[in-house]
Structures are given as structure tokens and as C-alpha cells.
């Protein structure tokens, strides 16, 4: 038994030795085979590499570099952000029909699935320069995220606001508009449509270059955001400058009993802004039958919104203006007019309804102010205007 075991071990040894000798003999051959295979692979790889670099390699390399850099300049966000992030550049090449169509999109689910901070859209309808811009800059300072700015000026006007200005790059694609003509309402609709593209804009106020705010931003923000009504001036004037401008061809789309007049300088909420941009019913009637001496910018929106959503209108404007001097144009105030006494006329002695309650705060903005009023206004603002 023992010898067998020894033998077996020895056999094993021997086998082991023999196999080792076999291995040591086979090793160079295997290495050679591997080497040849490796060399063949190297040659093949080189050939393929040269071939592919020649034909696709450089292109592939560049594409890879470009695509890896793309996130840096590709501003188009994916996901929900695409719908809630306002366009960073207001310049687009949409025609008016394209813009109005796009801006009329309304979500059917009313609850926003993200924390939405409602903003005021300040829409400036101007010929060109904004001489009172420094006052607006001061008024808006520190309230970023609660407002947006849009400026419609003559297409020929080149705006030149420094990057630090709130008006920098806030010019929308504009067209020539004439007072009292439909092109004026087109400009107002263009402002509304551009502002509607930002889902966070909730209240839309139309202003001119001669308008100023007469309260601090917080007061104005709260007044507008908490209002159940939109501040569209709309009254039924039985005289020649009211119902006298009505054209019977508008019937039955517009009945004379619905005919309204009001100041062009409106403030409306998002729902009414959409009513305005989506309108295809009243627009053709006003375009065709309300021409001077019917001044369409005094009648189109007040009448149309009275018919479509009269119960949402405060029927008064929040922009103070002085007609007391008489004539076709309201008074314009220059540097020498700007005194504390003057502002008492705006703040005191007014009565109006605010959310169905009596209020003495009726005007948030005022016009018309000449460029010469800027310096006195900046001086008086901290004490009188509250900013
Ligand atoms: C890659 O970038 C270069 C310059 O950086 C550019 O000329 C080329 O058009 C880009 N290619 C692609 C596919 O974007
Ligand atoms: C806007 O530009 C695109 C190409 O960038 C063009 O196809 C389209 O017709 C343009 N639209 C208008 C209204 O000019
Ligand atoms: C139109 O106005 C007249 C009064 O001029 C009134 O009698 C009539 O009911 C109104 N029609 C409609 C449809 O509102
Ligand atoms: C504004 O006028 C319309 C009718 O033209 C009326 O329905 C609405 O209640 C008025 N608004 C207020 C706040 O009184
Ligand atoms: C507002 O004040 C007037 C008196 O100036 C009063 O007749 C009226 O009832 C008041 N309205 C409300 C809603 O308080």
C-alpha cells in the first residue's frame, strides 16, 4: 500500500516533472503564437485607425468636441423649465398673427405645479427714448423677479441702454403706430402678446414715456395683485364723443348699449390680456367702422371687454391725468410744476371703489411729465413718492 502510494506520488512527481518539461518546451512556441497574434492585431488596429481617421476620424473628433461643448451655449432647457422660463431674448421673427396665436396658449389645469411668483408686466408704448428711465430704475431697484419690462418704440429707433439698465434688451419687435388708428391697438396687442409669453406675468400695465409711478413698488404690487378687478377705464358717454362715435354697422356684434369709452392707459390681468390677444370677433368691426373721428384706442378694448368680461372691470383707470386745462390734450408737467403741493392733487380728494370698498387710493401712476421734470422728480421721490 505504502509503496503504491509512494509510487503514485513518484508517478505524480514524474508526471509533474514531465509535464513541466513539456511546458518549458511548449512555452516559446505559445509565446511566439501570441506575439504573432498580437502583431497581427496591432497591424490590423493601425490600418483600421489610419483608415478611420482619414475618412471619419477627424469629423468624429470635431463632432464629439462640439457636442461636449453644446450644453454651454444651448439655452433651450428640457423638461418643465422650457414652458416656465421666460424667453431670454425678446427678439423673434414671428409675424403678428403668429405671435398672437402663440401668446393665446392657456393651460387648462389652473393650479401651477411649480412655485409661481406673479409678476407685473410694465409695457411702455413710446416713440423712442424714455427720458424718465432713471426714475423707473430707482422705483424697480431691489424688486427683481416681481416685474418684467417691455418697450414698443418706432422700428427705426435704436435703443441704447447699458447692460446694467432694467430697459436693456427689453425692446420688442415693433411697427409704426398712429394715434387714434388701429395700428395703435395693434401695438398694444403686440405688447400684451410678448408679455404673455412669460407665464409668470399676471398684471399688465400700459404706460407711456411720460408716465411715472406715484407709490413705491411694494404698494403698487400689492394693490394690483390683490385687486379682484382690472383697471380699464370704461364708461357710457351718451354725447357726441361717446355714443356719437358708434357705427350701426357694428350691430349685432356691438350693440350701442355696450359701447364704451375709456382712457387708453389700461391695467388688466392675465385672463383679460388673453381675451384681447385672441379676439377675432370685435377686431374686424372696429377696424372697419371705427376710424377718425372715432378714435379706436378709446373704444375698442373698453367696449370689447365690457361685452366679454364686464364684471371683471373696475371701469376706472389707475393712471392719473389732468384734463382740467381743457383742450384736446391733457396737461404736461415740467420741472417747475414738481412740488409737494402738486402731488396733493394726485393723492388727495379722490374716492373710488377698490374691491367693492370705498378707497382714497385711486391712482398708482400719473401722466404727463416732460423730460425737464426728471431731476425734480428724482429729488422729491424719497419724501413724496416713497422710493
Ligand atoms: C463645430 O465647431 C466649429 C467651430 O467651433 C464649427 O465651425 C462647426 O460648424 C461645428 N460643427 C457642428 C457639427 O456643430
Ligand atoms: C422666421 O425665420 C425662419 C427661419 O429662421 C423662417 O423659416 C420663417 O419664415 C421666418 N418667419 C417670418 C415671419 O419671417
Ligand atoms: C341692443 O340695444 C337696444 C337698445 O338700443 C336694446 O333694446 C336691445 O335689447 C339690445 N340688444 C341686445 C341683443 O342686447
Ligand atoms: C363695470 O361695468 C360693468 C358694466 O359695464 C359692470 O358689469 C361691472 O360690475 C362694473 N364694475 C364694477 C366694479 O362696478
Ligand atoms: C362709500 O361711501 C359713500 C359715501 O361717500 C357711501 O354712500 C357708500 O355707501 C360707501 N360705499 C361702500 C361700499 O362702503
From TrEMBL:
Topology in the lipid bilayer is annotated as:
Single-pass type II membrane protein
Where are the membrane-spanning stretches? 34-53
From the record, what ranges are coiled-coil? none
Major site of localization recorded for this protein: membrane
Out of the domains of life, which is the source?
Eukaryota
Enumerate the Pfam families for this protein: Branch
Protein known as: Glycosyltransferase BC10-like
Task: List the source organism.
Answer: Senna tora
Amino acid at each position: 500500500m505504502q509503496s503504491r502510494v509512494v509510487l503514485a506520488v513518484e508517478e505524480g512527481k514524474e508526471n509533474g516533472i514531465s509535464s513541466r518539461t513539456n511546458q518549458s518546451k511548449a512555452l516559446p512556441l505559445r509565446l511566439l503564437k501570441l506575439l504573432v497574434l498580437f502583431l497581427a492585431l496591432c497591424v490590423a488596429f493601425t490600418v483600421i485607425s489610419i483608415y478611420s481617421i482619414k475618412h471619419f476620424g477627424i469629423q468624429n473628433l470635431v463632432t464629439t468636441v462640439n457636442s461636449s461643448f453644446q450644453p454651454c451655449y444651448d439655452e433651450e432647457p428640457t423638461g418643465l423649465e422650457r414652458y416656465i422660463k421666460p424667453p431670454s431674448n425678446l427678439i423673434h421673427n414671428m409675424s403678428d398673427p403668429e405671435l398672437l396665436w402663440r401668446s393665446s396658449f392657456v393651460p387648462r389645469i389652473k393650479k401651477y405645479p411649480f412655485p409661481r411668483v406673479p409678476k407685473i408686466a410694465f409695457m411702455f408704448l413710446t416713440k423712442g427714448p424714455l427720458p424718465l428711465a432713471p426714475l423707473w430704475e430707482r422705483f424697480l431697484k431691489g424688486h427683481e423677479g416681481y416685474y418684467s419690462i417691455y418697450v414698443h418704440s418706432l422700428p427705426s429707433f435704436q435703443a441704447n441702454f447699458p447692460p446694467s439698465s432694467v430697459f436693456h434688451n427689453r425692446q420688442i419687435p415693433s411697427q409704426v403706430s398712429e394715434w387714434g388708428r388701429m395700428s395703435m391697438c395693434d401695438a398694444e396687442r403686440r405688447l400684451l402678446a410678448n408679455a404673455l409669453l412669460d407665464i409668470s406675468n399676471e398684471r399688465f400695465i400700459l404706460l407711456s414715456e411720460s408716465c411715472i409711478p406715484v407709490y413705491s413698488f411694494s404698494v403698487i404690487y400689492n394693490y394690483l395683485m390683490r385687486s379682484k378687478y382690472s383697471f380699464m377705464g370704461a364708461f357710457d358717454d351718451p354725447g357726441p364723443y361717446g355714443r356719437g362715435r358708434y357705427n350701426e354697422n357694428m350691430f349685432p356684434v356691438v350693440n350701442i348699449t355696450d359701447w364704451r369709452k375709456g382712457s387708453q392707459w389700461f391695467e388688466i390681468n392675465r385672463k383679460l390680456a388673453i381675451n384681447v390677444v385672441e379676439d377675432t370677433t370685435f377686431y374686424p368691426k372696429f377696424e372697419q367702422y371705427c376710424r377718425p373721428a372715432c378714435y379706436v384706442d378709446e373704444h375698442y378694448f373698453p367696449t370689447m371687454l365690457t361685452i366679454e368680461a364686464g364684471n371683471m372691470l373696475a371701469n376706472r383707470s389707475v393712471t392719473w391725468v389732468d384734463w382740467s386745462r381743457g383742450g384736446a390734450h391733457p396737461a404736461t408737467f415740467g420741472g417747475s410744476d414738481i412740488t409737494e403741493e402738486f402731488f396733493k392733487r394726485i393723492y388727495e380728494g379722490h374716492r373710488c371703489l377698490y374691491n367693492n370698498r370705498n378707497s382714497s387710493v385711486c391712482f398708482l401712476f400719473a401722466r404727463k411729465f416732460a423730460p425737464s421734470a426728471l431731476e425734480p422728480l428724482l429729488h422729491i421721490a424719497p419724501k413724496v413718492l416713497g422710493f
